[in-house]
Amino acid sequence: MSNTSDKRTRNLVLGLLFDGIGMSSLLIPGLGDILDVIWAPLAGWLMTRMYKGNVGKAAGVITFIEEIVPGLDVIPTFTIMWIYTYFLSGKNKKNIV
Prior knowledge:
By secondary structure, the protein is mainly α. Helix content is 72%, strand content 0%. The radius of gyration is 14 Å and the shape is elongated.
């Protein structure tokens, strides 16, 4: 596997895991909202580490808002960012097999 392919796969697996963690707070009414206060800044930071540059920073802010606002936890922002990065942005089209 090439380095680019490894990174794509790693980001997809991590993104699915992080989306699952974010959505799991919906399983515990009341306590889930408190856990979101901890998870929201961590999720925003993780997004900026996974995706570099201004796009990663913007996605980090969006992820933070999505996680901190009650009821929006169902939005899979990490997965959406993965799709945007590897299929919609145009930067990586030459790397897609």
